[in-house]
């Protein structure tokens, strides 16, 4: 049995951590919150309300890629939460990993802002959402390992759609 990773991706506020944890539970997979893999400097920068740049993200993406590599090589299945906003970030995570699937939690800016305003205790501030959408490179058809899941429904419906799409992808692989 080969291990695999499911990267739950999207802008801050789309529900990655909540939905990723529920997907992991449904699939009996390990759950890794990518926020826990940020270097200290990144967390401090975000707490100050400063958006991360590509240089800040590079060591974090390496940690995400290494976590996926570890899961694959231990024949484990895991769900990793990571914004993976740019294609180059997704490519970095793919590099050296054979079994990675991305679940893109897709929602419009007004919905994301509404959800972020309801959150408490998260280091990403609502005004920083503009930088997230500015950085987002929506996956296109060339990225065949990305499943696009709308977040317009309530969380349990979104999880159900994601799990169903993952099972369908697995059946056709």
Automatic annotation (TrEMBL):
Q: Which UniProt keywords apply?
A: ATP-binding, Gluconate utilization, Kinase, Nucleotide-binding, Transferase
Any one of the GO CC terms: cytoplasm
GO molecular function list: ATP binding; gluconokinase activity
Its pathway, per UniProt, is: Carbohydrate acid metabolism
- A Pfam match is SKI
Q: Which reaction does it catalyse?
A: D-gluconate + ATP = 6-phospho-D-gluconate + ADP + H(+)
Q: Which SUPFAM superfamilies match?
A: P-loop containing nucleoside triphosphate hydrolases
Q: Which Gene3D superfamilies match?
A: P-loop containing nucleotide triphosphate hydrolases
- Transmembrane ranges? none
Documented EC number(s): 2.7.1.12
Q: Has keyword Kinase?
A: yes
Q: Which GO terms describe its biological process?
A: D-gluconate metabolic process
Tell me if Nucleus is a UniProt keyword of this record. no
User: Which PANTHER family does this chain map to?
Assistant: GLUCONOKINASE-RELATED (PTHR43442)
The entry sums up its family as follows: Belongs to the gluconokinase GntK/GntV family.
- Can you say what this protein is called? Gluconokinase
